[in-house]
# Entry
Amino acid sequence: MSDSADSRAAFQVLVLPYRHTAQGAEYALFRRADVGYWQGVAGGGEAGESPVHAARRESAEEAGLVGDREFVALDARATIPVVDVTGEFTWGPDVLVIPEYAFGVRAEDTEVTLSHEHVEFAWFTLADAAAAVQWDSNRTALWELDHRLRRTVAQHRRGGSPRLAPGILD
# Structure
């Protein structure tokens, strides 16, 4: 087991910033500096950190999304080969895959700032985002988030609660 296992938790997070426009929801994707593909904010948890806390930290570090933000815990899950994440068997020879937890984060009227991990970001419709991303886990999470957002808007129009449910994390 490497030293990085002492500071790194055996999970990843995927965070999809979203905003509402007159045409519907849009999703921020980020082009990675090292390999050039598009994805949501992604990163590893730190030792002792919960997935939602890792999502909040990664969103701040990679996209400048700080402060009191509305996070949506998604049901979408994936597993990723550990060597594709850390380049080695970080947590020993028996930990072959790690879970990826997905979240949405509301980013209305926010200026996104990039970390050194990305060369650009852009706002996409669901269809364009699904076509742009590299990983199926990103497509699944985008679909789920979009469905939850559309359902919430419909409930709000009918006089129901405008809050996302059941996965809202404030």
